[in-house]
Amino acid sequence: MKDWFDLTSDFYSYMFQFPEKTLGMNMKMIEAAGNIIKAEQTYRVGLSKYINDFMIPYAIAVKYITHVERGKMIHAPFADSLESYAELLELNLDIAGKELAGRIEAINNFYLPELNMCFVAWLNTVFNLEGEDIFEFIARHAKTLELVTYQYHQSIQDIKSEFGFHFEKAGYIKAAETDRFDLYQVLPNDKKVKVRENGKPVLIIPPYVLGSNVLAFLPGENKSYVHSFANQGIPTYIRILKNIQTNPVVQVMTGEDDALDARFFCEQIKAKYGKPVTLNGYCQGGFSAVCDLLSGELDGLVDVLITCVSPIDGTRSKGLGQFLRDLPQRFNDLAYGTKTLPNGNQVADGDLMSWIYKIKSMDDEAPIVAFYRDLMMLKNIPDVDHQEQKSAGHPPHRRLGEKELNVSKTALAINYWLTYERNDLPMAITKMSFNSYNIPITKDGTLPVKLFDRELNLKRLKEKGIKWLICYGEKDDLVEKATALAPLDYVDAEVTMFPKGHVAMATSWSRPTSEYALHKRFENNQRGPVRYQLDLEKKYEKDS
């Protein structure tokens, strides 16, 4: 047992340490209170950013609907208007229900694990155990909110210099142009590779809606669809739409203009290499390529077609197609998304088009869902000191004051593309896609659009001996399998399935070391589009 002296010594030692411990605890509590206030304010700012990004297109939509309905309400019977608005209300309630379900799921996914961690942190604090205490828990939450609200969005803006095409830099050669398009040759970014002057050339047609930059996703990271071709020595060309805001000719272009410009570019490319061109369309670009070929304008110039995640028959879509079918007929009208420019030309509003894609997937794309999804992604990602990354041999992803936000460039680039790559569209081109999502291909294979007043029948490709490779995404919820593979009901084509979603071929699988790299063969002897092109080139060499 301790004697009187020892007990007295322990008592005075405790009494002397008590003020210091009390002061330390008080300071922690004051700091925690500050973090709670800061977190609450940051939460409001962050969530408002996500909501504003969603609501701005909503305000645009209300403006268009009000303008169009002023005319329709006068001429349409009142009973018909009442019925249409009742159907629209029912659709809105269904969308609201999906949004609520998605919101509850997102919040639960974030907070339920955090509540358990909060309880553990509280126990650690009360019983002075090792591990994160309640003050560190609060500080971590405040930091996560700051990352999402401020630093993450700044990082997304900063990735611009690495994302997409930068034709002002080396690596591209302007080969030709029309009033509507520029034609660029894409050179290998692998300096060891040289373009084969006797190779079979490919002309890549980007989508109007998604834009061209997604096909040169992150060239510096070896994630680029176009460079996947160029880095194999294939003569690779891409057609780039000129700025619609500053080019009235682009604003009023038609499907016929698209076909004629494609013919002009194919003539230039074939003359240079002495070989027919492979026409390769991505997403909506694939639909345009099919229409151009079926019009007859590319006869003798193109002998191979490659389409990647392309909506050939949109009526088979369970996502966007079903959404348009559920929409009351009165509101299934392009007039509700038409923007009138200062010069009087009308175009399809790009902001509204992207918003429609979010509306049809409200359970995943609602602003609160997106906000909590980003919180989930960043809550366990630490700020990594710049010098630490440098000493470890890893360049920092993004400079943010004195710290680096350690988020993958792929995530940043995808978010940049989704946020900033919104382009208005020519009305005539939009009308073609609109028809393809509302009118099915006929039983004999005729598309629901015409070019040069000619019917476009898929069986014409077989008559002309054009080879066709169709690539689709296994989990693509934008252009589903049935939508992309619709031509198989009328013509033969080779099919390749890629895992993941709509842009995986342009992102994940464009990396040459990936499992489903575009130049590889897969199970069941399926071929990526680059492998398909290389094999055709070998066949040409053997036959010549």
Report what the structure shows.
The protein is an alpha/beta fold. The chain folds into two domains: 20-162 and 365-420, no CATH class; 172-345 and 424-543, 3-Layer(aba) Sandwich (Rossmann fold). Helix content is 50%, strand content 13%. It is built from 17 helices and 16 strands. The chain has helices spanning 4-75, 78-126, 134-158, 225-230, 248-251, 255-273, 284-294, 320-326, 350-359, 362-365, 367-378, 386-391, 409-420, 427-438, 459-463, 481-484, 529-543; strands at 172-177, 181-186, 202-205, 236-241, 277-282, 302-308, 338-340, 346-348, 383-385, 399-400, 403-405, 425-426, 446-451, 454-457, 467-473, 494-498. The chain has an eight-stranded mixed sheet, with helices on both faces. Helix 1 packs across helix 3, helix 3 (134-158) crosses helix 13 and helix 6 crosses helix 7. It is globular and about 85 Å long.
